[in-house]
Amino acid sequence: MSGKPRLTYCNGRGRMEPVRWLLAAAGVEFEENFLETREQYEKLIKDGVLMFQQVPLVEIDGMKMVQTRAILSYIAGKYNLYGKDLKERALIDMYVEGITDLMQMILMFPFSPPEAKEKNIDSIKERATNRYFPVFEKVLKQHGQDFLVGNKFSWADVQLIEAILAVEEKIPAVLSGFPQLQAFKIRMSNMPTIKKFLQPGSPRKPPPDECYVETVLKIFKK
């Protein structure tokens, strides 16, 4: 065992991608174990490795962690990305939960039927521009600081830059009415650990394609 966190999931974004983002932003190297067959997944269940018979699975500090939210909370706390007190943590939690709601739409998009994709893109754009991005635009404008909470880099910043880039892949001009978020995107993308993660050859996964969708359905759909 190398001591590096070990991530078990499919070779794609899904629910593991925010974990990759957070570890990378914290400057933590990790190893990955990619599931390719249903048999591999069933063996994890049979061996009692998955508490709720679900992945993502992250092995860290002697624990076999499941449930994305629990994994992310632990990593954020461990690497000092979770605020300085309970109030800051509550703010970070609220921001993260909001971003997660938006990202759920992105997560499910590749699995929607072809005839629904245009409608789903419109829904993502509507939610991003009317419900979620205005919140962060207002926060950044009001306090005039570089980061969302406590003028310090946190889990919320990582989740937001991930979401911005994911939405831009589908709607390139989505930030056109959000100057604060445009500036935030530039700042975050130039932070050394994030800049490294955005380079070709990093553990960051590409947008899901048909091969990824087929693999996920083969492994997890009964």
Second CATH tier, the architecture of the largest domain = Up-down Bundle
Counted beta strands: 4
Treating each run of at least 4 consecutive H or I residues as one helix, how many helices?
9
**Assigned CATH class of the largest domain:** Mainly Alpha
Overall tally of structural domains: 2
What structural class do the secondary elements suggest? alpha+beta
Sheet with most strands: strand arrangement: 2-1-3-4
What is the fold-level CATH name, i.e. the topology of the largest domain? Glutathione S-transferase Yfyf (Class Pi), Chain A, domain 2
The ordered string of helix (H) and strand (E) elements is EHEHEEHHHHHHH
Helix content: 55-70%
Biggest beta-sheet profile = 4 strands, mixed
Rg is 18 Å
Mean pLDDT: 95
Q: Tell the overall outline.
A: globular
Beta-strand residue percentage: 5-15%
Structure description:
With 222 residues, the protein is of the alpha+beta class. It folds into 2 domains: 86 residues, Glutaredoxin (3-Layer(aba) Sandwich); 106 residues, Glutathione S-transferase Yfyf (Class Pi), Chain A, domain 2 (Up-down Bundle), CATH 1.20.1050. The chain contains 9 helices and 4 strands. The protein has a 4-stranded mixed beta sheet with strand order 2-1-3-4, with helices on one face. Helix 1 links the parallel strand 1 and strand 2. Helix 1 packs parallel to helix 3, helix 1 packs across helix 6 and helix 4 packs antiparallel against helix 5. It comes from Mesembrinibis cayennensis. Belongs to the GST superfamily. Alpha family. Keywords: Transferase. This is glutathione transferase. Its EC number is 2.5.1.18.
